[in-house]
Amino acid sequence: MELPPLVAMVGNPNAGKSALFNALTGARQKVGNYPGVTVERHSGRLALDDGRAVELVDLPGAYSLDPSSPDERVTRDVVTGTQAGERLPDALVVVVDAANLDNHLRFALQLIALGLPVVVALNMVDLAERDGLVLDPAVLERELGVPVVPTVAVRRRGIDVLRARLTALVGGTTAELRRLRPSDGSVDDDIVTLQRRARTIAAAATVSETPVRRWNHALDSVALHPVFGPILLATLLFVMFQAVFSWSEVPVSWIESAFAALDGVVRDAMPDGFLRSLLTDGVIAGVGAVVVFLPLILILFLFILVLEASGYMVRAAFLMDRMMAQVGLSGRAFIPLLSSFACAVPGIMATRTIDDEKDRLTTILIAPLMTCSARLPVYSIIIAAFIPARKVAPFIGLQGLVLFGLYVMGIVGAFVAALALRRTVTKGDSSGFMMEMPKYQMPRMGDIAIGLWSRAWIFLKRAGTTIALTTVILWALLSFPQAPAGQKQADYSVAGRIASGLEVVVRPIGFNHDIALALIPAMAAREIAVAAIGTVYAIDDVEDTRGERTLVDNLRGRWSLPTALAFLMWFVFAPQCISTIAVTRRETNGWRWPAFMVGYLFATAYVMAGITYWAAVFAGL
Amino acid sequence: MTSSLPPETLTLETLPRHQRAAVDMIEWERLAVPEARRLRELGFDQGVPVEVLHRARMGSGPIACRIGRMTVALRRAVARSIRVSTAALPAE
């Protein structure tokens, strides 16, 4: 089958490329990877006006064709037709920020000079107008020699015109707009020269300009204020973590009752036996224990996506730079680290925007210390079981406060680790911090929804495959061989015997046999710890034939408070996630750094859990 | 390094907040290669109007400045190598 024509979207960071991509393709998107590199390939299908379909690919944002990161290298290689696994695009959609032509036109000039058919999307014209900037697209069209379409991607304006221009451009035989590839050397790659030319064109296309940006300035004077800025940031983060708990309560109870109903249906429909036990105690108990956390994860991602889309995230990086500089990192590391609160895997991949190699490596090594969403199932079940749900102040619950404390613990741990690493294994000059701060913008809910949907899908897919399979294996290991009367099944089984060996190691830090058992499958993913404990107690609970006793009740009856606290502390530090280890290996090209990461994190987890346990025991908790 | 400059030389680091100025000269040799390139890519060039918008904290922390129609955050060490002048501003 012949591949459809390829159209690449390319432009500066903050040009609104992704919003335009969403506007053109809707939800019909695919996320893949370029071979050999860990750069995500976002593609989608677009039906042209004449019925032909093209594949639209959203390239990583870049400032020029002179790459300074793997992302920018992919962008250059695709538009020059040298990227492995990608065909030369049939046309380019060059996205420029209307309010920032001075800068964005320089890259546009470089791209136009490549000789591919180009249409320029003059994006965010509404924001430019709000800034008091009036532009003449006709002048731009004349100066650049390619069609220019004013668009407002987030409001879906100009999309039809853009599609019409693309229809004329792709595979058009008339091709009056197709420029000839310039001979070697005619493309002036000197940034300064191109920049000056860009400024001249921008000035020519500007009809009128009032140099005001009241909106942004007013917001920035609060967001970047030396005193109020950090207070605002701390408040936002605190609200985010409180919301994760309080907003999720109702949807979590829905999911719980849905799984309980499913469990009931299976129990009624099937005779008692191994198959029924496999389905209820294995699959339903295990997957259910994990899926209930979907609301929490989505709320967390909702905040992160909104903060990113609104333009606030870079302000947060600005505020954090000073603190990050003290531990030898830059404010740039803040965004990957904040993403790591959702999941360390995209967080570690986001470190690719950090130019400095040592800086990047340090960020990768501490990223797993940011409390990822997979720890939430573990934290929230233990908190629900052992921390009373009372208010310590109006609107501040004790449970939320403990959760916040665990997040702070991870952050402090990460900073201490960064400080130590920068003085030892990743020693080197401190790197710089230079970032463009995008304009504030109202995030479009549709774009946020697409982002949330893809996260939910990844999570559910994982719950349905890795987690389901692991819990089934665990169920089997727990169910065989069957314990004779008077013996506990969880101790007698194959898994129980493995755990007994591990228990010797973890007993000094207050862990019991059930925890030792849960730690093994939790290597696949942290949230499996909860599923595993759920499975252990489901199999072990002989009196509870209808699955009525909740995991919380079981935990309360079987664990002491010091054990629970030590367990929480363990999960602050323990690198229990195969995916994180795998992505670290990919991003650092070898086993050396992931091995180091696993070693130092396990050692820290062991020591910290031990300290917590014995401190709690001596405090008489 | 700083002492080699005459004391009255204004840099982006010392430029008072909201005082409009233009880039006079950039001491490229004081910057690391990737830093210098990023600075060029962000549009820093002789004669371009600049304005300091925010300083994170007195004494240290990054600076947010307006360059062209963009807001850019950079560290003080970099700002120190960007000489600015308040005279002969291009008309806006």
TrEMBL record, chain A:
InterPro entries: Fe2_transport_prot_B_C, FeoB_GTPase, G_FEOB_dom, Gate_dom, GTP-bd, P-loop_NTPase. It holds the Pfam family FeoB_N. Residues 4-172 form the FeoB-type G domain. One of its GO terms (cellular component) is plasma membrane. GO terms for molecular function: ferrous iron transmembrane transporter activity; GTP binding. Gene3D superfamilies: P-loop containing nucleotide triphosphate hydrolases (3.40.50.300). Keywords: Membrane, Transmembrane, Transmembrane helix. The chain crosses the membrane at residues 222-245, 283-307, 327-349, 361-389, 401-421, 459-478, 515-539, 559-583, 595-616. It comes from the Bacteria. This is Ferrous iron transport protein B. It comes from Sphingomonas adhaesiva.
